[in-house]
Every structure is written in C-alpha cells, then in structure tokens.
Write a structure and sequence with these properties.
homotrimer; alpha+beta; Thiol Ester Dehydrase, Chain A; 2 domains; twelve-stranded antiparallel beta sheet; 18% helix; globular; MC_hydratase (chains A, B, C); Thiol_ester_hydratase_Rv0216 (chains A, B, C); lyase activity (chains A, B, C); MaoC family dehydratase (chains A, B, C); MCH/BMMD (chains A, B, C)
C-alpha cells in the first residue's frame, strides 16, 4: 500500500464535499522580502508600513497576490495534482488583508461536476476559501479544472454546472477596514494618474520586460508550497521543459503593471482568468492592460477600476490578444480580469 | 603575511582542542521563508505557528535542518576548508528547537585524529555543538573529515579513533519540551498514516523529483554562511562544475520525503550519513526511505521512527542503494540514517 | 497620453530641484536573510544581535549596503532610467544604522548640470539622502550620471560642476551611537587582525571567487526595487546579455573581502567609486583590497580604515587595476574607495 499522495481523480469528488487542505502556513516579512526579490513589485501600500498607515491601515499588508498564492498552493495536492488543464477562475474576492504573522489555511467546496464525453476526464468546480488563524476568510475564488478519471469505467456523476457571475459586482467588492485614500500621496506612490484619469477602453502598454529563469520560477512556486511536479522535474515532460506555474506569470504581470498603474494599489476581485499559453524559462514576459470598467466605492477617496491584465511574450505595445479565429494569439500567456482599488 | 584564512591543516588539530567558530547568526522568519522557497518543505509543525501550538510548542520552530545548516556552516572555515572528503556523521541529536529571533553559534571539540598511511592527509573527528544566545545547546553531532597536511614531513599525532555509537539510542532522543501529539490533526498535516502504520523494513518511494539549478544551491549554501569555494567558483574544478553542498541534498531529500512521511514532523537524531556521490546542477534529485526501527517515547502521543533516507538522481522507485561490490550505486547521492518524531 | 514613466531627460533637471523618490520600503529580517543568501556576507555585526549588543548597539543593524541599495534603488526611475553611464560617486556617508522594521525613502537634490559638447547628452549631479520613518537621514551620497536629452535642440542649462571632496574627511565620519569595540571578540568575528595590523599601502588578495548566475543578480536587483530594464530583459541589448547592476558587484566584493578584512565591520563612507567594466552572468567575481589610509575616531576602540576595494573577473592575486594608458584593465569590474570601521 503506497503512502504517497496519488491526488484525487474525477470520481473522487462529490457535490458539496468540503476539503480542508493541508499544511497551514505562517507568513512573515520573509515572504514579503522574497516577493520583492522575485517580482518587480513596487505598489507602495504593500511595500511601506508608513504609506499603509497614511491610507488608514494598521501596517502594510502582504501583497494581495501573496495571499492568493498561499491559498492556492495548499489546494494543489487535492485539486490539481491530476489536472489536465486549469480551465478558469471566477468570483474571486479578497476579503481581508493578510498581515505578517498571520497563519493561513485553505478549504474548498465542490460546487460543480461534469464528466467529459470521452469518459476519461471530467471538470470539477471548487469554491476555495483562505482562512486566517482566527477563522476569518481572507479571500475566496472559484476555480475549475479538468481532471483525469482513475477508472474510465467509473459511473459519471450527475452533471452540475454552477452558475457563476461573469464579473464580480462592484457593489460586492470588500474594501479593507479603514482604507482611506483621501490624503493619498501620489508622489510617494510614484504615479500622478488617478482613478479619474483612466477611461474605459483605454489601453496601457506597461513597456518593461523580464526574461524568466528556471531558478526564479521554482523558488516562487515552492514558496507557495505548490509542489506540482511539472514545475520542478525536467524529466517529467518529453521536451525536458519545466512548465511555469501560471501564478508566477500573474504576479509578474501585476508587478510590471506598476509602470502605468502604480496607483491600482490593491487587487479586490478576480473576475476571470485564462492561462492562454504555457510559459517557459527564457521567455521574456511583458504586460498590457485595458480599462474595462470603473465604479465608485463607499470608502473615502477609494475608486474601483476593472482591468484586463494581459501577459505576453511578444510586443506588449501591439496589444495582441486573440486571432480572427477567436483563439488566443500564441504569444499571449495570461488574460486576467480583475478589480483594483485606486485613489479617486 | 597573508591576512586571509588558509584553513586548518591536519597538523593544526590537537586532541581535546575546542574551536569556537566565528560569525554568530540571528535567524528570523526570513530564513524560514527562504527555506520554503529553496526546498519543497511542507511539514506542518515548522510551517504553522497554530499547528505547532496545537502540538504543545510556543510557536513553529525553524525547520530542524535550518538549525543543522547554520551550525554546520560556521564550522566550515575551521574544519573543512582543506578537507579532501567529508567522511561521516554520527551521534547527531537535536537538543532544543531554534526559534525566530535566536542567535546561533557553534563550537567543535577535536575527539579523534588519525594520520593516513600516505603521510599526506589525516582524518579529524570533531564533536560540534550549536548554542543559542542563552548558551543552551540546540544540537550536536560528530563529523569526521579527511584533511590535507600542510607539511607532509610534520610528525603524525598519536592515533585516537573515537568510539561512536552506530545508532543514537532511542532512549537518548531529546523531545522538545511540551511536545504533545495526542490531539494531532492528521488532515491539516496532509497525511493519514501514523507511527503504527509504518512497518520496519517498509520502503517508501517519495515519487517527486526536483532538477537542481546553480543559482538555487548557491543561494542555499550561502544562506548558511558556508563559503567553501568548490560550491561557488566555476573555475575551481577542472571540469568547470560547481560541487553542490551535501547539505543541500539532505534538505531536498527530507523535503521530498513529505510525500509519504508527512507526519515525520521533527528530525530528532542523525545516526549516520554518507554523501555517496557528488551532485551537480542539472541533476534531478529524488528520494526514497526505509523504516529501520521504531521506538516509543515518554512524550504524549509521540513515537520515534528510524529512517534511512536515500537521495538518488535515478529512479527512486527502484530503491537502489549499493551494488554487489558493496559500493554505492553511481546514482545514489545520499544515504542518511536518522530518527524522526511522529504521532502514534 | 502615455501613463508609463518615461524617466527624466537631461532638460528635465533644474539646479536646486529636490526630487522625492517614490515607493517607501519597510525592511525586515527577510531582507537580511536574502542578503545572506545572495552574497557570502559574514561580518558578525550585521549577522548577530548578540555580537552587535556586545559592541554597544541595540541589535544587529541591516548590512550597510542593504541601506545603500534600498536608497539607491528608489532613485533609479527618476535619475538613471535614461542614463547612458553611471559616472561616479562621492561624499557618501552612512549616518545612522537601518534596523529591521524601519521604513526607508529617498530624496535627491540636483547639485550640478553640464551639457556635453555633442548636444545630445548631459551630466547631472545629485545628492541623494535616505530617510527613515522618523525623517532621520540614514545615508547620503553624491552620484553623477550621463543622461540623454529628449530634444537635442533644447537649450543648454548654465554649467554648474559641484566641488566635491576627493575623500570624506575622517573627522566627518559618523560613528553609530553607542558603538564600542573595546570588548570586541576577535574569535567570534573570525579574524585576529586588528586596525593596528594593517599598514597603509598593504594589499590583500581576498582569494575566493563567485561565478554569477542570471537568477541571482536579478533577484538581488529587484529586491532593491531597482527595475532598470537592462538588468532584466534579455531582448534589450543586441547581444542578448543582461547587464548586471553595479551594486551587485559592490556587495559581492564587499562580502568576499571578509576573508582578510573580517573586522572591517561597518562601511562608514563611500569616497569614490567606478564601475570599470560591465559584469555579466558567467563571470567569476574576485576581489582585492588596498589600505589607503587610517584614522582614529572618538568612539572607544573604533578605528577607521580607508580601503580601495577592487572587484575583478581575473586573478585577484595579481592586483591588476589600470594599464599603462591609465585606463582600467578589461578584467576590472569595480574600483571602490571607502572608509570602514574596525577595532583598534
């Protein structure tokens, strides 16, 4: 009897099942320092206690994507170890900042199941929540993945496809308690453009590029205790390449977007996301954004901006997304739809 | 007169000599974060303050191997700078957890000397102790190395070969004060198998592999302030390769062993260890374990399990160790014999 | 209208202008741990709280070069984004230690301007100050860079070349409050040679070498939030090489100098510095030092030593600096002139 974790197969999931994911994690200034070393992250609110205090918070929270990666990483052994594909995200919301010293764990509820017509795989939808040491939710999101069946003969479950919001409603965004941008220091933030300066439909070329190294994406992916072997074992794929964790590209694109969106200080919601093409070591990642929507919030001086954030290994200034066939262009790595918070 | 440290040569060691190693080191959450980035480390006790508190500790200690590496690193300039070979370990015991904020230093006592028959080298045995800021021992181990003589004509010292225990007696294992596994949360730990589920003689293939990069092993080795040039200087060896610090392979194997031994939460003793073959960048490291022994302890719910932990750059599922000639197979990197603590 | 930062061009600077640089940064034990992973840094005062307390400080300060890099990194988007060359440093002084938990920001005053005769570029001199959360200066230095003009037709400003001290006067060195080397533990520091053992004119070959990897210099450079694209984007230069941040070479050389100058615990002043030749991944960096001067200080047991610290990708024992033509030899990477503090 093997003692290693074979991961769950499609027939192991049941509607309504709640999986408590293993290995809670206490985070510290160490994770923040590493995040700054791994990504060109410069958003002032997550970089400086003083800046955060001037914005009404008790200290600088950890970057919102650190929270996402820690929560996500814990789900990998239970959700995506036998995944063929990571199909999408929806209804992601950050619910509470994560502070140095917090201990984070994750749990997921199975909210949808659909066997594929080939009978060999199926799609599983889970709603994942990250919880801190007080049991308070720090974030939640829905993810769906295509998972292999262990036994192709196993009977198909009843098909349940959850009804998911295409976009998180702006009214449902959770603003961190106390956040107040009314005395915001644009000079220290590094960017003079505010919420009112961005127009729906506007596109921003974030200009800079980062060429990815094997050591860096492995350090990042391990940091989140995501140990899916495709990211680490060069003998795993026939081509000898290590597939880069999609979240590494998300963080790289978000960090690059500082140059043009430095005031989009916090990510408040993840409306949708597609890892359009795989990313490998040696690729030079660039990013561009499109303003999809804007909304007011109840917090003083805080506006919400809905952004499409695209990572590409091509020319970010060409704003390439999909071809005439409606498919992602081969150089597009990531297409993310999110809400961010910005001073009005 | 040169001011750089030439290292000690064989004739510089005297029986009973105590060497206070230089550069004490204060550790923090930063070392923990880096450890998680460098290795796929997921043992819950060293990852989560909450999990550690539920096990009777005041907080999550730093990984036991962080303690080992910090203590070991300090000895390098005095013990192994002119070493030809790292021959073995014995009687290693962890005596007290290392917490973030602790300051660690090391000292070694020379407990054995034996000149080799070629007259050019000799073997030095030292017992090394790591001490915290209160002067309390956090770990100790015996190591022996083959060291060059500066002057082949220097007289040989009296031969003293210390009598070392082949295995640390289970009764001599030091259980951290307060450790209590009676309310252990197996779900959060990530593994349902407990002490009683492991049988002596059982072998576990840890399945996963990690392909090593130069940047990663250098970051790790420097983190422990181990600056032996063979690890960093590509011009040092004729083949242009950098030899990977043996401790890097130990930590990689230990972290990989989570998959199958997630509940072996703490390493309590190092009975023996051999760096069977050198490891280089590009090697894909895998691991397998064999249960060598089991013992009860006086701490509530805590059992001890004696494990052989083998790192290999071959197929871990083949459980290869030695050939018919009694020598390590060429793909074997590490053969470690240790006691770990596990919920019964 | 572009929203990305194009950087300042020569005609954007005005004499007396004060630029508050963006993105304040709170530092922690995480930055210290990463510094130890990135460089073979072993100076005991910045490594151990206990050692630092025995030297009169409240705890171990962050390495003086961490302070420099954080302060410098913030200036890049405003000062050197369009720089053709980093021409020099002068009048650098460390004014107050940086402790874990401090929040650092930077500001620069334009103190000199000189358009080049080609009309396409000009030289800008700035005096940069790093400030902590209490507004206290932690360091200051003058740097001058050659910057492109946006519009070659823009009128030349009045030429002002600031008069800069060739060397910081020893009387002007700022000794951290409380620093006292009268009970200095040479054994724990790792070196028996004290201030009195170094002679003016003496040269020290630091012996060790480190071969540089892309992942490492990028991690380091990002850690300081220095995002100049030449360091990260392999498509930026025609030769496909990423230029290594000069500060990475400074820290590598300083860390290597431990072996021979382990007691030069703190850097107190930066008199001058030249990045003699570019450094690329694959280069093996070595270092040598020359004692340029010595001075007493008012602090108990504390002496000052003025050092030339040279980084080379050649043989450090050859002490190569310049050729007969007065130009730096091609293997020389860095020529730094600084004051350090040492036990007398």
């Amino acid at each position: 009897m093997t003692k290693t974790n074979p991961g769950r197969f499609f027939e192991d999931y049941r509607m309504g099942q709640v999986i408590r994911h293993a290995v809670p994690r206490t985070v510290s200034g160490g994770e923040r320092a590493l995040y700054h070393a791994l990504y060109p992250a410069r958003h002032a609110l997550a970089s400086s206690d003083e800046f955060a205090r001037a914005c009404g918070l008790k200290a600088a929270p950890l970057d919102d994507l650190i929270a996402f990666h820690v929560v996500f990483g814990k789900t990998v052994p239970d959700i995506s170890l036998n995944a063929v594909a990571n199909l999408g995200y929806a209804e992601g919301r950050w619910l509470r900042p994560v502070w140095p010293g917090d201990t984070i764990r994750s749990e997921s509820e199975v909210i949808g199941l659909k066997q594929n017509s080939n009978g060999k795989t199926g799609v599983v939808w889970v709603r994942t929540r990250g919880l801190n040491q007080s049991g308070e939710a720090v974030m939640e999101y829905v993810r769906w993945v295509m998972v292999r069946k262990r036994d192709p003969e196993a009977p198909a479950p009843e098909t349940v496809v959850p009804k998911l919001a295409e976009v998180v409603d702006a009214a449902g965004l959770v603003i961190p308690e106390g956040l107040n941008f009314s005395k915001y220091d644009f000079e220290l933030a590094g960017e003079s453009h505010r919420w009112g300066d961005y127009a729906i439909g506007e596109r921003i070329d974030h200009v800079d590029g980062v060429t990815i190294e094997e050591a860096e994406h492995m350090l990042a992916t391990r940091l989140w205790q995501n140990t899916a072997k495709v990211h680490f074992d060069a003998t795993n794929r026939e081509d000898g390449k290590r597939l880069i964790y999609g979240g590494h590209v998300i963080s790289m694109a978000r960090a690059l977007s500082f140059n043009g969106l430095a005031n989009a200080q916090m990510v408040a919601a993840l409306n949708a996301g597609a890892h359009a093409n795989p990313c490998f070591s040696g690729d030079t990642v660039r990013a561009w954004s499109e303003v999809l929507d804007k909304a007011e919030t109840a917090a003083p001086g805080v506006g919400a901006i809905r952004l499409r954030l695209v990572a590409t290994k091509g020319d970010s200034g060409a704003f390439v997304l999909k071809g005439e066939d409606g498919k992602y262009a081969p150089e597009v790595l990531l297409d993310l739809d999110c809400w961010a918070l910005m001073p009005v």
